Amino acid sequence: MAEMVINTTSSSGNKTSTDNMYRYKLIITTLLGLLGLAGMPIGHTQSLEDYYRIAAESNPGLQARYKAFEASLQKAAQAKALPDPMLSMGVFLAPVETRVGPQQAKFSLTQQFPWFGTLSAQNEVAAALAEVKYQEFLDARNQLYYQVALAYYPFYEWKEWKMLEDENIILLESFKALATTKFRNGKGTMVDVLRVDIMLKEAQTNLDILNKKENALRSCFNAILNRSWEEEVVVKDTLEATLLIDYSKDSLLEGNPVLDIINAKVKASEAGIQVAQKQALPKFGVGLDYVMVGKRDDMDLPDNGKDVWMPMVSVSIPFFSKKYQAQQEEAKLLTESYRLQKEEVKNQLFGNYHRLYFQLEQQQDLLVLYEQQIQESEQILNLLFTAYSNSGKDFEEVLRVQQQLLLLQKKQVSTLVEWNVLKAQLEFIILGGS
Q1: Tell me, what CATH number does 192's domain have?
Q2: Which residues lie in coiled coils (predicted)?
């Protein structure tokens, strides 16, 4: 086991240049390395794309959508099938006497045929509705990916905040040890020790809250992936806010499942108009009757007892045509409704696109600002720490700048997470959300 001793004693004769801020930074970095980032989970880092794949394979909601699509494919086979033939049988309780013998039983087989093109129109409706189900599946997949991203990025924020709090505690403990030494040597006050002690308790409380937060984050994330809530979640060590690709607004309208759902509904309703028109036309039927005839015993006749075969043709007369006219009007109104919905979705897509693009640029500007402020705050802290090490004065200012630096570092992490969340949302609406 490696042991590290921090010597914070100072005397007028042997004070060295190592008693400065850089020494404590080095100590913190070394300790966090030895402690494995204070108990962070160790394992193979999985990218967000890895979790997308896991979610797509195991999420029951997405699987249900795909099963619904597969079920809709079976509708096409049903839509283009002819009606079942009708077979009827009858027995004469009192045989009907005819010249060639008594009729004993009758069998009828009929098959009805819709007007030409009706089945193909019905098949087109079923195919369009199957396309609706498929696009709904794609939309559900994209929504699932977005939900995974929303649950993934807070893990990175939690991990980074935890590391910052660990670092802050070690640094404050170093400050406390130095303030205690200064007080004992008569170069500081007990107030400095109490101030840093208060801040230490606050930092430890923040760290305890972060430790408790892990279970909630893990449970929500694993629920999306349909896994046990205790399953380990390992995220990337770094996130980036790379320069934005200037997505063309036209890409919002290409391959977008939400728009494709509406397009398929329009196609189905247009085909529904044809179906209603075809159903308003006559239907044809062909059939064959077979009558069993018994023989006459009282005389000998030609064709005595000969069975009867009788082909038949039937035509349905669409006398009550108002219902078919209503069906056509219904399909026309639905078509217009879907087209208006499509325009509304387009407007929402363009509005969300511009809003998200602005927010992404805003977060990038904040990241640049925070990086500058962090660098300047570190310089100020180093100068104040060196001055305090020499004079024992302005310790309150050292603590204030340290907490300001911690706040800026947390804001930087949160802004980086927010940038990635916004980017995921932008990709979601481009791939198929609204």
Answers
A1: 1.20.1600.10
A2: 324-380
